[in-house]
Amino acid sequence: MFGRKKDELSAQDPVDQLAADPAVKGAGKGAPTPKRKEQEAARKRPLVPTDRKASKEAERIAVQDQRMKMRQALDTGDEKYLPLRDKGPQKRFARDFVDARFSLGEYLMFGALLFVVISFVIPSGSNILSYVLIGFWVMFLAVFVDVFVLSRKLRKGLAQKFGDVERGTVWYGSMRSLQFRRLRLPKPQVQRGQYPA
Question: Are 105 and 143 spatial neighbours (Cβ–Cβ below 8 Å)?
């Protein structure tokens, strides 16, 4: 009553029939599974290289080569080897946008240096020193306004071209505008007035 009927096919029978069929037999991977010992031996590497001196030299050459490629990328603007902080289309847009315009921030450090030199030359009680100090603060305020205007324009340009603005890109452009143009890295790839499209 509860037993199987002899004329019904068992679930194993179709599988046995497929295995016996020579046309289906070739559908497997075609190679024996490697033994565990062989797999483990293939994966084994020594923790410490056998020739430490040669390994150290090879590593030093690889690091030196990477540095050389990065240095060339900072000169040519090659995206592949740039440092991580300079990579990406939005950072490139920000660099080109800043490099295309004249920024007051480029000369802030020269103004600060001039103020320090004048403060050593002119006596502290002199009225001229107070005028120089006021002039320095006026320059500082003008640079602040210039960077604020730049950041607004840069954010607008990035939003028009890319839709959303990556975090830190506007700050990246603003800080670049405070560096003297010839000392900027990566080096400027556009002339003044040649704004990115």
Answer: yes
Say which amino acid occupies 16: D
And the tokens for 196?
Answer: 């990115």
Report, in angstroms and rounded to the nearest whole number, the Rg of the chain calculated over CA atoms.
34
Q: What is the mean pLDDT of residues 43-60?
A: 80
Contact 154, 98 (CB under 8 A): yes
With CA atoms as reference, report the closest residue to 154 among 87, 78, 79, 103. 103
Say if pTM beats, i.e. exceeds, 0.85: no
